[in-house]
Amino acid sequence: MQGFDDIDLDFVKFGDTGIWTSELQFGTWRFGKQTEAGNTEIDRERAFELLDAYEAAGGRFIDTADVYGSGDSERWIGSWLSDRDREEFTIASKIYWQIREGDPNSRGTNRKNIRHRIKAILDRLDTEYVDVLYIHRWDDDTPTRETMRTLSGLVDDGLVHYLGTSTLRPNAWKVAAANELAVAEGLEPFTVAQPRYNLVNREIEGDYLEMCASYGIAVCPWSPLGQGFLTGKYDREAGLTGESRVAESSRFEERYLTTENFDAHDVLDAVATEVDAAPAQVALAWLMHHEGVTAPIVGARTTDQLAENLQAANIELSADQVDRLNEAKPGPYAGLN
Fold first, then answer.
1. Which of 89, 249, 256, 280 is a good FRET partner for 151, with 20 to 30 A between their CA atoms?
2. Confidence (pTM)
3. Which pLDDT score, from 0 to 100, does residue 336 have?
4. Residue 203 is assigned to a structural domain of this protein
């Protein structure tokens, strides 16, 4: 496939599990996603083109969730897989968000919801199992023992191979407590985590990454490009004065369009110039050089964007360049990661 000829993604060890994962995983959260104007960000035809391109680059790990595109993401992946050897691909999905209005039992990680939704996930994907099942957020309303026993039962039944946790904010002690309970009671523990992590979102540094390393948990960050901020498409002056044409919410502006983030971006730009690459590619390469990171999750709207992102696998950063990027915006626990 044109544009992907010089990309050949390697496999890396998936934490302390017995399997390997593509060094860049493919995220499908835009598949079937409806915009406020009522348009579909990525339709079925484009989804197939992107999956074809990822496969052509040697990618074999596809990440989705049961709420992406109201289930269309899983349906399209399942249809695409029907013409391929299912065993060649690692498929991850997620559960948590409420799916029936007015029904509080249709959200979270209670036993009823988990068992109902895994059946629907497998049906949409047209597969007998998912390789990884994440809890999409932490459910404080359900006892940890109930969640872990139910999830472990899915592994025992052969419906799921590995368990993961995807969180918006670091919950290191909750994951550790769940895994300690699992070990004590002979249950399946979490073996993969999917936190937000990028050059300007450093909240997991310190205790969360150390916890993952201690338990041998694979770390597969989402939002590795800071919702597009690290691509370089936002202008400093326009962003800081509130004149930037941002399609996202005001929370995006508060989180990303700050002086310290633009200062960090200046360092990113400098390194990108040195290695003759795009800022987005260097931001991904920085994560791939991080010993605490297993494999970032990348997405794209077009095959050209996907090719550019996957080219990050070909970028080598020097120790000095990695150090400069580390210091561009130190995390809350600087010196501990």
1. 89
2. 0.93
3. 44
4. yes
